[in-house]
Design goal:
Distance between the termini: 52 Å
Strand content: 25-35%
Radius of gyration: 23 Å
CATH topology of the largest domain: D-Maltodextrin-Binding Protein, domain 2
Order of helices and strands: HHHEEHEHEHEEEHEHEEEEH
CATH class of the largest domain: Alpha Beta
Number of strands: 12
Helix content: 25-40%
Largest sheet: 10 strands, mixed
Structural class: alpha/beta
CATH architecture of the largest domain: 3-Layer(aba) Sandwich
CATH superfamily of the largest domain: Periplasmic binding protein-like II
Shape: elongated
């Protein structure tokens, strides 16, 4: 079986874009050239790799297996190139990081510091919900993943980065905002606005509520911290968010952290990657940068 690096990259572009035209554009070749190269790849494998339905490309089982294999090969080659560059005293290459949405409040600044230190490194940052980050981890699409609730069913290298306090917030006009202290039980009559099920913040607070036998009256489940803050500011209920969603403050944009015994609930941000994954020199440098940024 004879498939070149260029053909593997083209096939991966096809897998990622779902379009021969888009794959050709991504690889800077003409569509006829892309079609011919993809035909040669299919002939080399000897099995159908994809089918086109309503102008959309769908990979077959053989195509999915080839895409994963090609991705692993190209990633290993990138690691080799970076190792050689490091040996020669050069620092260049690519870094791919995927983070859960709440990490967007601090990760861009940390990445900015890294880019200033290593200006010739191209950094790709994916910001998704937890399910999206776990899916990218499963497909081995990135170098590192930042989340608060790593999946327990995967073999991971897991390092704690920093504390992730989970707080209760209310409208600044709500009487709860003025109370110096209150118990969780005293909030049983309140309506709660929570993140969607499966998010790291939701998993953390659900575990805490279950431990303390508290059943919140849930008014809304929303898919972003910004939506929760707006709903709380509008007086629709009290919310649960990471304090990082308030930019580390206790009050912003019409909402304030309320004093409830047991809160903040202590959670942590984790740096993770599959245990079998061999990190590139750049990924190791980035991990070191993150740790120094937090400790410094």
């Amino acid at each position: 079986m004879n498939i070149s690096f260029r053909q593997m990259k083209l096939f991966l572009a096809l897998a990622d874009t779902g379009s021969v035209t888009a794959a050709a554009r991504a690889c800077h070749v003409t569509q006829p050239t892309a079609s011919m190269q993809l035909k040669e790849v299919t002939q080399a494998v000897g099995l159908p790799l994809y089918e086109v339905i309503s102008k959309k490309v769908y990979l077959t089982d053989a195509g999915l297996a080839l895409a994963q294999t090609a991705r692993d090969i190209l990633r290993s080659w990138e690691v080799f190139e970076q190792s050689m560059d490091a040996t020669k005293g050069m620092t260049r290459g690519k870094l791919k990081v995927a983070v859960v949405s709440t990490a967007k409040y601090f990760m861009p600044r940390m990445i900015g510091g890294f880019c200033k230190k290593y200006p010739h490194i191209d950094v790709s940052l994916e910001i998704l919900n937890r399910d999206g980050v776990v899916a990218r981890m499963r497909d081995n699409l990135d170098d590192l993943y930042i989340m608060s609730q790593p999946p327990p069913d995967r073999d991971l290298v897991d390092e704690v980065l920093m504390v992730n306090p989970v707080v209760l917030i209310a409208s600044t006009r709500d009487p709860l905002a003025k109370k110096l202290s209150q118990s969780l039980a005293s909030l049983s009559a309140q309506r709660f606005i929570l993140r969607e099920k499966g998010s790291g913040t939701r998993m953390c607070v659900d575990q805490y509520f279950k431990k303390h036998k508290f059943s919140p009256d849930i008014r809304m489940e929303l898919g972003s911290n910004e939506a929760i803050k707006e709903a709380v500011a509008g007086g629709l209920g009290i919310g649960v968010v990471s304090q990082h969603a308030l930019h580390g403050l206790t009050k912003e944009h019409g909402v304030t952290v309320i004093n409830v015994k047991g809160f903040p609930v202590v959670s942590y941000w984790h740096m993770v990657h599959p245990a079998q994954k061999k990190l590139s020199p750049i990924a190791h440098a980035f991990k070191k940068h993150l740790i120094s940024s937090v400790s410094g």
